[in-house]
TrEMBL record:
Residues 63-232 form the Exocyst complex component EXOC6/Sec15 N-terminal domain. Pfam families: EXOC6_Sec15_N (PF20651), Sec15_C (PF04091). The keyword DNA repair does not apply. Belongs to the SEC15 family. The keyword Acetylation does not apply. PANTHER family: EXOCYST COMPLEX COMPONENT 6, SEC15. Keywords: Exocytosis, Transport. Residues 426-784 form the Exocyst complex subunit EXOC6/Sec15 C-terminal domain. Component of the exocyst complex involved in the docking of exocytic vesicles with fusion sites on the plasma membrane. InterPro entries: EXOC6/Sec15 (IPR007225), EXOC6/Sec15_C (IPR046361), EXOC6/Sec15_C_dom1 (IPR042045), EXOC6_Sec15_N (IPR048359), EXOC6PINT-1/Sec15/Tip20_C_dom2 (IPR042044). It comes from Pagothenia borchgrevinki. This is Exocyst complex component. GO terms for biological process: vesicle tethering involved in exocytosis. It comes from the Eukaryota.
Length: 825
């Protein structure tokens, strides 16, 4: 019906030629092929139908109708061809319908039974499904928990480490938490809380570790003393061991004897010998190190913590700053440090402890402190130490304390030198301390010498037996062949102070030697030090003590003579002191730069001072006797005998000059020296006596003098001349000693003889009998006699008889005045 409807709607196509029909058939065939294809779009095809030619739609419809009819015929042919088969199939299908219904019933029944029997299985299956879901959830949970449990375990471990103060391990745990564990489970809230809490824990660790460091710094201040004491003891033991090895190696050399000083026994190397051997026992004990005495773990821990936290520089700056502050505190000495050696010991122990700790930190850590830092602190400390020691050592007046200080400085320097610190400036300081030590020794020995001089009896040493003689000779090098031949008991010329002084000089040499040890100086330098110290003792201390002794008022002539004897023997002993120093130092005295002892000049000066004091005291004693003179200047006649005071004076002079026979005369030099001293003293005494008598006559307070007084005075002068001519001291040639009274003799002879005409006539002639009479002296004495003659009653009774004499006196006075005026013009 469709095809009929189509045919009715389309008009008849116009007639076309055969070729056009073929062409048209071809075009429409292509169009229908495109339309029948389900893959190609229809829009283009349909557009080509309508856009091609006029009436194309109509022709298309005609062709489409023809095409449809053609397909209908083909379909009909196909249906006709398959119709019988279809009928047969339907017939067979109808036949199996009954069987199908029967089979359907059976299937339905089977399905029912299957459903009934499978219901339990279904329930079990659902249960299994639920279990599988639970199992899957559990597996997921376990998997997540396995990721979370390590985080929790690490966090728990972190808490335990914090509680046990294992901060460095705690920081490592934090680092693992942040980088490894927390990122795996970062989606959970508790992990975010943990991550937020870790910075706070780091700051707490930082604060705690800094607090531990502060506690360590405070503790190290308290332990520095013990650390330094241990280090210095180790250095001292090492030095003692080296000294023992060197001593053993030089066994064949000269060994200096054991000696005593200030109640303590010393060996040749200056070390004190103590009966208690506790020091050796201590040396056998185990010596602790700085690591044993100080727990450095807070420093290491804090350093590691700040390193892990990336703030190492802050820690290093803080540590160095605090240690510099502590160094300044350590270098501050106590005000009374100079009073005892323990004060110096504590001071050195603290400084050594400080630098031992720094040296340990330097080598045990990487860069916490550097060598440049320790050198900077040491240079600062060294300047302060030297200034402190220079100041406090100047307060020391005890040589034993100065010596202990020197030993401490040496051990202190050796200890720090062992740790690599330069200590040359300390050894330079020891030379300043040595000068201070020598000064204290000289002060101390000055007291010793003064005590020796005060206790000396200034008399020759008596020796009763040979043992006593050997004892004295062992202490002092005395050799005299004549005295050795004498039988016991006998006397040695010097007093007991001589061997004591000689022994004390040797003691000072030993004391100086003790300071020179361990200064790392050559034998020549030590020899020079000893000789300089000995020279200072001789030229300053002993010389000063001798000069003061000689000037003391209670030292008499006998003591002065003994002092001359003593200084002579001490002078002779100087060569033995030089040999003594040479034996100690093994330095030949022929060495070019060897310092010589100046003892010879010291004792010569003391001897000259003693001689001068002898002359002075003799003159003073003469003055004392002269003051006892009591002349009656107006007496008419003399007593006929010398004055008592003068006879006492002469007896004193005789006994005094007998003392000079004890002066050393065992060789030509001493004989000439003793004779010279005695002669000089005798001549000085006679001259002084003559001068004093002359001054007595010419005293301005003496206004009148009689001829009787002149005669009495002449008797006294005669006794003086007799004393001079009696040779009280041997060695004078002729009347040399009598010449001391020549002025008095000529003056008195002039008045006694009344030989004015000769005097005036021969005045000025070299052969004058009264050559030594000065006109002024004669005028002064004559005027005293003229005044007496005017007031004398005798002259008044015999005025006529003595008128010529009075005129003569006036004439002589005028002539003498003219001579005096001529001399002054």
């Amino acid at each position: 019906m469709a095809s009929n409807r189509v045919h009715a709607a389309l008009p008849d196509p116009p007639s076309l030629s055969e070729e056009e029909n073929k062409e048209e058939e071809k075009v429409f065939g292509n169009i229908f092929a495109e339309l029948e294809s389900v893959d190609l779009p229809l829009g283009t095809t349909l557009r080509s139908i309508y856009d091609d030619q006029p009436n194309a739609h109509k022709r298309f419809m005609e062709k489409l109708d023809a095409r449809i009819r053609n397909h209908d015929r083909e379909i009909e042919k196909m249906c006709n061809f398959h119709h019988q088969g279809f009928v047969d199939a339907i017939t067979e299908l109808l036949k199996v319908r009954a069987d199908a219904e029967k089979l359907m019933g059976q299937v339905t029944d089977t399905n029912r039974r299957l459903q009934e029997s499978g219901r339990e299985v279904t329930c079990q299956t659902e249960e299994v499904i639920r279990c599988r879901i639970q199992q899957r959830n559990m597996a997921t949970t376990v998997e997540k928990l396995q990721l979370c449990i390590p985080v929790l375990e690490m966090y728990s471990k972190l808490k335990e480490q914090l509680e046990s103060k294992r901060y460095y391990a705690a920081l490592k745990t934090m680092e693992q938490l942040e980088k490894v564990f927390i990122p795996r489970v970062s989606q959970y809230r508790f992990c975010r809380i943990m991550a937020e809490n870790l910075p706070r824990l780091r700051e707490e660790i930082k604060e705690i570790s800094m607090s531990d460091l502060k506690d360590f710094l405070e503790s190290i201040r308290k332990h520095s003393d013990k650390v330094g004491e241990t280090a210095m003891r180790q250095a001292q033991l090492h030095r003692t061991f080296n000294s023992a090895v060197a001593k053993q190696a030089s066994t064949g050399h000269y060994t200096k004897p054991v000696y005593t000083l200030n109640g303590q026994t010393h060996t040749h190397n200056g070390l004190m010998m103590d009966e208690d051997t506790g020091d050796e026992d201590e040396g056998d004990e185990e010596i602790l190190t700085a690591q044993d005495l100080v727990d450095f773990s807070p420093v290491y821990r804090c350093l590691h913590i700040y390193t892990v936290l990336g703030d190492r520089e802050t820690f290093e700056n803080y540590y160095r700053k605090q240690r510099k502050k502590q160094a300044r505190l350590v270098l501050q000495p106590q005000a009374n440090m100079h009073e005892t050696v323990e004060g110096y010991r504590r001071y050195f122990n603290q400084i050594v402890g400080f630098f031992v700790v720094e040296d340990h930190i330097l080598h045990a850590t990487q860069g916490l402190v550097t060598r440049a830092f320790t050198d900077e602190v040491w240079n600062m400390a060294l300047s302060k130490i030297i200034a402190v020691l220079r100041t406090h050592s100047s307060y020391c007046d005890d040589p034993d304390l100065v010596l202990e200080l020197k030993n401490l400085i040496v051990i202190f320097a050796d200890t720090l030198q062992g740790y690599g610190f330069p200590v040359n400036r300390l050894f330079d300081l020891l030379f300043e301390v040595r000068d201070q030590y020598n000064e204290t020794l000289l002060k101390k020995w000055a007291l010793v010498f003064r005590e020796i001089f005060e206790l000396d009896n200034y008399s020759p040493i008596p020796v009763e037996t040979e043992e006593e003689y050997i004892l004295v000779v062992s202490r002092f090098p005395f050799h005299d062949a004549e005295i050795e031949k004498q039988d016991f008991p006998k006397k040695l010329p010097m007093s007991q102070s001589v061997p004591q002084i000689y022994t004390q000089v040797k003691e000072l040499i030993y004391a100086s030697l003790k300071f020179s040890e361990s200064l790392h100086r050559s034998s020549t330098e030590i020899d020079d030090m000893l000789r300089k110290s000995t020279n200072l003792l001789l030229t300053r201390t002993l010389s000063s003590c001798l000069q003061n002794l000689i000037k003391k008022p209670h030292i008499g002539l006998t003591e002065l003579v003994q002092i001359i004897i003593n200084t002579t023997h001490l002078e002779q002993a100087c060569k033995y002191l030089e040999e003594f120093i040479t034996n100690i130092t093994n330095v030949s005295p022929e060495t070019v730069h060897t310092t010589r002892l100046y003892g010879l000049s010291t004792f010569k000066d003391a001897r000259h001072a003693a001689e001068g004091e002898i002359y002075t005291k003799l003159n003073q004693k003469i003055d004392e006797f002269i003051q006892l003179a009591d002349y009656e200047w107006g007496m008419a006649e003399s007593d006929g005998r010398a004055s008592g005071y003068l006879m006492d004076l002469i007896n004193f002079l005789r006994s005094t000059f007998q003392v000079f026979t004890h002066l050393p005369n065992n060789n030509n030099d001493h004989a000439s020296m003793s004779g010279k001293v005695a002669q000089t003293a005798c001549m000085s005494a006679c001259k002084h006596l003559s001068t004093s008598l002359m001054q007595m006559l010419l005293d301005t307070e003496l206004k009148q003098i009689s001829m009787g007084a002149i005669q009495q005075f002449n008797l006294d002068v005669i006794q003086c001349e007799l004393f001079a001519s009696s040779e009280p001291v041997p060695g004078f040639q002729g009347d040399t000693l009598q010449l001391a009274f020549i002025d008095l003799r000529q003056l008195l002879d002039l008045f006694m003889v009344w030989d004015w005409s000769t005097y005036l006539a021969d005045y000025g002639q070299p052969t004058s009998k009264y050559l030594r009479v000065n006109p002024a002296t004669a005028l002064a004495l004559l005027e005293k006699m003229k005044d007496t003659s005017k007031k004398n009653n005798i002259f008044s009774q015999f005025r006529k008889n003595d008128r010529d004499k009075q005129k003569l006196i006036e004439t002589v006075v005028k002539q003498l005045r003219s001579l005096v005026n001529g001399m002054s013009s």
